[in-house]
Amino acid sequence: MRKLSLLILGAVVGAGGATMVSQTTLLSSTSAIAASADTYRQLSLFGDVFEKIRTDYVEKPEESKLVESAINGMLTSLDPHSSYMDAKSFRDMQVQTRGEFGGLGIEVTMEDGLVKVVTPIDDTPASRAGILANDVITQINGEQVQGLNLNQAVDKMRGPINSSVTLKIQRKEAKEPLEVKLTREMIKVRPVRARVEGDIGVLRITQFNEQTYEGLRSAIDKLTTDIGADKLAGFVIDLRNNPGGLLDQAIMVSDAFLDRGEIVSTRSRNAEDTQRFNAKSGDLTKGKPLVVLVNGGSASASEIVAGALQDHKRATVLGTRSFGKGSVQTIIPLGGNGAVRLTTARYYTPSGRSIQAKGIDPDTEVVQDVPDELKGKDETKGEAGLRGHLQNGGEKEERGGSSAYVPPDPTKDKQLQAAYDLLHGVRKGAANTVTPAN
């Protein structure tokens, strides 16, 4: 059975082995039998309650929904990241991790109850049809968007390749709404965006899906060519507000900047199930200086990359403390009935740090200037602020989140500007212009 995870691909779920019977083993077996008997009594209680609901509830319940809710309740009682996914949620998760789907090629957000276009993706049905940033989508196939949430609206725009969808669009400068008919194509999410900033290459990684490493490799090659290897001062790797994704991609992204050494290890309940992942020879940047940007919204796979590069002193981590999600979830498919997302391990940085409910402290702390209207709203609670979160498992100190605000104007982005200054300081051999965090 193939196992997928938002964080780990191919995580090991414990397997039993042959043992030699001894007195201790027999005593343990007796205890296990007693425990099993008690468990079966509890399951019998569950069956009694289920039957009462099924026969006596004021309205006829949907029995399959009752069972799914019971399963989900059992899983969510463990920690905030364990849950049950029905068939549709499982399909949606697979689309997210693959990073490709049948759609139109527009990035959207919800504003005042309507879907607003953030940007059309180049060479997609949306861009070819002339859809522009800030266009407001008011109808999808004749159905009003107002009243739908963002996920519902996105689901209606996605669909089988070569099928059509009609959008009604309101544009500021147009008096009358525009009606556009588009044919869906295979759309690939761009998890890596690259741009040149003088002699610096900026790599913005928004998520870790199946496209991330290839996108990163292509972006590094293009930036190196565009700037010139001799003129290139270094790279900024922007992981701010990146919620994470697949572990294999986090490992490959880390490996892109390392020549050797451990990247991450995972430790489950059984010590023999510990896994270690090491870098292979070959730094794609040829040792160019790196600055990694993190904030309170950088979680999971983002923290694996930041932690690996920090521990190997390959990069300077700059920004505010990260989210602190240091646990591993394994996705276990259940045939045609969805999947279970189960926390199976903690992960550790190369130096042996568990960042669970602690986060990664930046080497250089830089706090943004937050607009008055957003003050207090820019803070994330972090993993430590989640009810029922998994304990660190070694460290007593747990801390809440930190600021996750990123100014929309790059010239007002203090963290980004500090990264530029630091890279220029590294290149010139000058002292840091930013005070390191204590």
Structure description:
The model is unreliable at 1-29 and 430-438 (pLDDT under 50). The strands form four sheets. Strands 3, 4, 5, 6, 7 and 8 form a six-stranded antiparallel beta sheet that branches. 28% of the residues lie in helices and 23% in strands. The protein has 438 residues and is of the alpha+beta class. The protein folds into three domains: 26-80; 102-188, PDZ domain (Pdz3 Domain, Roll); 192-328 and 342-428, 2-enoyl-CoA Hydratase, Chain A, domain 1 (Alpha-Beta Complex). The longest helix is centred in the N-terminal third of the chain and has 34 residues, at 23-56. The chain contains nine helices and 19 strands. The two termini are 47 Å apart. 38% of the residues are buried. The chain has helices at 23-56, 63-76, 87-98, 125-128, 150-157, 212-227, 247-255, 301-311, 414-428, and strands spanning 83-85, 100-103, 106-111, 114-120, 136-140, 143-144, 164-170, 178-183, 185-188, 192-197, 200-205, 234-238, 262-267, 275-278, 290-294, 316-319, 327-333, 339-348, 364-365. α7 (247-255) packs parallel to α8 (301-311). The protein is globular and about 75 Å long.
